[in-house]
Amino acid sequence: MVEEGVNKFNKSVENDRGSWAGLGLKPAKTIYATIRKHKPETIIETGVCNGVSTLIILLALSKNEGGELYSIDFPMPADESLPEFRETAYPEGHAFSAIPADKEPGWIVPESLGDRWELVVGKSQRELPKLIRKFDEIDMFIHDLEHSHPCMMFEYELAWEWLRSDGLLLTDDIHFNDSFSIFCNVREPKLYGKMSNSTGYAVKT
Ligand SMILES: C[S@@+](CC[C@H](N)C(=O)[O-])C[C@H]1O[C@@H](n2cnc3c(N)ncnc32)[C@H](O)[C@@H]1O
Asked: What is the structure's pLDDT at 81?
């Protein structure tokens, strides 16, 4: 499904109009195995784009026969208005991830996996507080959007407050800045480290 998606993306999006930006194979496999093992009931992910991480999570939940995924994404369609759109909608640290102009976030996810998934379209800074407050607690949080220091700290701190004890925070692109190590130094997770060169994890005490 991912390979098919990449081929369709490459056919419809020129190189300078945005990148695929999907999660790498190693973190994707680790996330799948983690969800299969720990069977989280409530997962929130931020950053859907074409939908690699979303697909992996939903495949694992489907195999578990339990759990729900809530995702937030403010997509960047690869269309003619891109330069202006980039400047106004995407602050520093954004890597120009894009979806084909005629698609929705998570378009590679097959309909058959959709019954465990709710997508919220909008900026995380506005939508995450509203979404997370719908739950008493969450089991897993995955950050993969706007890797600016303010946005990463905002998401980590909010997710940490809502994560249950032993809940898991995962974050891609920790090499963009020091946000993840600062967060871990301050919050002192029970366990933390790297799943790959660019992906970090932290387990709440
Ligand atoms: C790196 S991509 C996500 C990749 C995805 N996790 C995957 O594995 O395919 C980041 C996505 O977040 C969106 N985005 C960037 N900043 C955002 C923000 N502040 N709020 C919501 N979405 C944002 C981008 O448009 C893009 O769709």
From this structure: 60
